[in-house]
Write a structure and sequence with these properties.
It is a single chain. This protein has strands spanning about 5-10, 15-20, 25-30, 35-40, 55, 60, 70, 75-80, 90-95, 95-100. Strand 7 (about 70) and strand 8 (about 75-80) form a beta hairpin. The chain contains no helices and ten strands.
């Protein structure tokens, strides 16, 4: 398993999220109280970029149809239909760099 650098901690301030590319995938990285979490950036309902939605505490809300996911686990937390969870990624912070383990 390898690590891919995806940014600096100063680039994603607490309460913010950002789309990055890692290992050919689009990944959403969120900063929740100084802890970093990462999940697939693509909504499993209709393919929207989740980084264009909103982040409230640890809940990502898709801007297209309102699907809600937990950014810590990738689990679907609210939507009228059953859709797949997001793929979570392990995040490692070293010095001021953010890495994903892939």
């Amino acid at each position: 398993m390898g690590k891919i650098i995806v940014g600096k901690i100063s680039e994603i301030t607490p309460g913010k999220m950002q789309k990055v590319r890692a290992d050919g995938k689009e990944v959403l990285v969120a900063n929740i109280g100084g802890n970093f979490y990462a999940v697939n950036d693509t909504c499993t309902h209709a393919g929207a970029s989740l980084s264009e939605g909103t982040l409230d505490d640890c809940t990502i809300t898709c801007g297209w149809h309102g699907a809600k996911f937990d950014c810590k686990t990738g689990k679907l937390s609210a939507f009228p239909a059953k859709i797949k969870d997001l793929q979570p990624y392990k995040v490692v912070v070293e010095s001021d760099n953010i890495f994903l383990e892939v």
